[in-house]
């Protein structure tokens, strides 16, 4: 196995590990909720524990950049705050509310309807034409979701849980769009740390930690037919299902093309359903399992479309000398990474890593939306800008220039 193959294998393993870690959050969080914690209190504990781990980690890894944080982060303060409120706090809170009232697999599949909102935003707000293949993939996924939630039975699923799951989808879409805006400008570790700090602070008033039943932490909590200390379950969802899940996802996606990593991250839904079945004894009906398979089929269609578009672009790309001339025609791509202490040193890595920051774990929006971006005109290229001489310039600048 050559070096490139080993790199791809390592990336595959890291992204799969990230998906499993994210998928395992529901059963552990649900056990804490059934032991006496409110859904928002469980979410607050999860995000607060992650922030307590990530803040010193970011200080150690990005200490020099963090010392200039007031100046370096000021232009990005607003999107970072919104990211923390929606992409971290809102997404996690809505998901935990849904998971507390619905089977975990159903809750996470509802959350994965975020790509519909993303594509709607691209088409209706940014006025980006959406390719029919991308639309077909979303329609296929939505048909699967209709089977999963059994819409024809109306009240067979808890309406509050259903609304919370759709709210998680909206927050997931917000996460993707904001991270897309910050791509290449702010380091993924800084984005994740800021998101957990803002998210924990925002949920403090709603979770009321001063009224939290702290006795749950040292108590033995029923879990999977046994008992476990409450603090161990909190540590799991805070460290394994948040910190490790995010960091392994970023590290894995640095070793894989974004489209490949996005497709692999769909295993989170499968992992969540399987872990809930094995640990909590939950089950999906045959109709719901069929719907889940259709959802994944829609994701596969999107990834195939993105792969064909990427292969076509690769086949028509000129030699490296032409690419170098193209990169020289994009001055923003050269200056951004030198001047911004929060940007990654490698422009390609920064774009992929920022696109998956805090990921995470929420790869569903990214997967279909990357497909739309790959087979549709870029929203950034549609904005008023000087005309470029050849497609190579657009490709080169699109990879390295900061999003606006």
Automatic annotation (TrEMBL):
Family the UniProt entry places it in: Belongs to the EamA transporter family.
Keywords assigned: Membrane, Transmembrane, Transmembrane helix
UniProt entry tagged with the keyword Membrane: yes
Keyword Transmembrane helix (UniProt): yes
Organism: Actinomadura bangladeshensis
Gene Ontology CC terms: membrane
Composition bias type Low complexity, residue spans: 311-335, 374-396
Coiled coil region boundaries: none
Annotated spans, Disordered: 311-346, 374-404
Residues that span the membrane, as ranges: 39-59, 80-98, 104-122, 134-153, 159-178, 190-211, 231-253, 260-280
Protein name, per record: DMT family transporter
Every EamA domain range: 11-149, 161-301
């Amino acid at each position: 196995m050559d070096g490139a193959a080993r790199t791809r294998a390592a990336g595959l393993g890291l992204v799969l590990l990230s998906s499993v870690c994210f998928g395992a959050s529901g059963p552990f969080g649900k056990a804490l909720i059934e032991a006496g914690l409110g859904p928002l209190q469980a979410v607050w504990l999860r995000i607060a524990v992650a922030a307590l781990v990530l803040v010193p980690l970011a200080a150690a890894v990005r200490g020099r950049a963090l010392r200039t944080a007031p100046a370096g982060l000021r232009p990005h303060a607003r999107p970072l705050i919104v990211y923390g409120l929606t992409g971290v706090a809102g997404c996690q809170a809505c998901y935990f509310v849904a998971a507390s009232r619905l089977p975990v697999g159903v809750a996470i599949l509802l959350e994965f309807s975020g790509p519909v909102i993303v594509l709607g935003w691209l088409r209706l707000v940014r006025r980006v034409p959406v390719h029919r293949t991308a639309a077909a993939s979303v329609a296929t996924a939505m048909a699967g979701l209709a089977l999963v939630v059994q819409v024809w039975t109306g009240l067979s699923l808890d309406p509050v849980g259903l609304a919370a799951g759709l709210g998680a989808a909206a927050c997931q879409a917000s996460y993707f769009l904001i991270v897309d805006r910050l791509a290449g400008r702010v380091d993924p570790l800084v984005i994740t740390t800021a998101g957990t700090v803002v998210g924990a602070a925002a949920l403090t008033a709603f979770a009321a930690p001063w009224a939290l039943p702290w006795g749950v932490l040292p108590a033995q909590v029923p879990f999977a037919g046994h008992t476990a200390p409450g603090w161990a379950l909190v540590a799991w969802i805070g460290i394994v299902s948040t910190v490790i899940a995010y960091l392994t996802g970023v590290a894995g996606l640095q070793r894989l093309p974004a489209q490949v990593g996005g497709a692999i991250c769909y295993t989170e839904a499968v992992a969540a359903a399987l872990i809930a079945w094995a640990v909590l004894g939950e089950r999906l009906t045959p109709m719901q399992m069929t719907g889940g398979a259709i959802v994944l089929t829609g994701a596969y269609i999107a990834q195939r479309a993105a792969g064909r578009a990427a292969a076509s672009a690769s086949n028509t790309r000129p030699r490296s000398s032409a690419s170098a001339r193209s990169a020289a025609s994009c001055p923003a791509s050269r200056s951004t990474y030198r001047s911004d202490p929060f940007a990654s040193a490698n422009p390609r890595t920064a774009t992929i890593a920022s696109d998956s920051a805090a990921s995470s774990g929420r790869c569903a929006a990214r997967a279909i939306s990357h497909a739309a971006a790959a087979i549709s005109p870029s929203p950034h290229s549609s904005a008023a800008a000087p005309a470029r001489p050849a497609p190579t310039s657009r490709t080169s600048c699109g990879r390295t220039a900061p999003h606006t």
